[in-house]
Structures are given as structure tokens and as C-alpha cells.
Amino acid sequence: MIMFLYSSFSMILFILGLFCFVSNRKHLLSMLLSLEFIVLILFFMLFIYLNLMNYENYFSMMFLTFSVCEGALGLPILVSMIRTHGNDYFQSFSIM
């Protein structure tokens, strides 16, 4: 019963995070924050799964390390884009 509650709650949060990521395409900062929210929900789901199956939590620490590296790479990209373009509007960035 508790497994069903954890899984349904985490899936609802994951879907809400994906919806927030898809609908907030105006600012780069809001997109990065919604990606971090999705990563945290995935970490929560992984942690619950590993604890319920009585596995080691070593993989969850590796996942958390990679997600911190992802966040540490996203922030300098945001700062450099704001310095070059003057804002963080996603529509003002060009692929070229």
C-alpha cells in the first residue's frame, strides 16, 4: 500500500515537472529550474526503489553527483548567455 502511494505521488510530481518544462519555454532560468525539479523527483524515485528492494544506495550517490554536475554546468551557460544577449529569453537565442 505504501509503495503504491509513493509511486503514484512521485509519478504525479514527475508529470507535473514535465508539464512545467514544456509549458515554460519563455525564460532559460525557468527551464533549468524545471529540469532540476525533474532530476530531484527521479532521485526520489530511485531512492525509494533502492530502499524497497534492499539494494545499496551507492548508485543513488552517483546519480546525485551527476545531477550536481549538470546543475553546475547549466548555471555558467546561463550567465554567459545573459552576458552576451542581455536577457534570458529563450526566443532571442539563435542556433547559428
Task: Kindly describe this structure.
- This protein has 96 residues and is mostly helical.
- It has a single domain (1-92), classed as Helix Hairpins.
- It is built from three helices and no strands.
- Helix 1 packs antiparallel against helix 2 and helix 2 (28-52) runs antiparallel to helix 3 (58-85).
- The chain is elongated.
- The mean pLDDT is 85.
By CATH, the topology is: Helix Hairpins
Briefly note the structural class of the backbone.
mainly alpha
Main β-sheet description: none
How many strand elements? 0
Number of H/I helices? 3
Tell the overall outline: elongated
The CATH architecture can be named as Orthogonal Bundle
Which series of helices and strands comes N to C? HHH
| Average of per-residue pLDDT values | 85
Roughly what fraction of the amino acids lie in strands? under 5%
Kindly give the count of domains.
1
Quickly describe the structure.
The protein is built from 3 helices and no strands.
Provide the descriptors you would attach to this structure in a database record.
single chain; 96 residues; mainly alpha; Helix Hairpins; 3 helices; 78% helix; elongated; transmembrane; NADH_UbQ_OxRdtase_chain4L/K; transmembrane helix; oxidoreductase activity, acting on NAD(P)H
List the helices and strands and how they pair.
Blueprint: H1 2-23, H2 28-52, H3 58-85
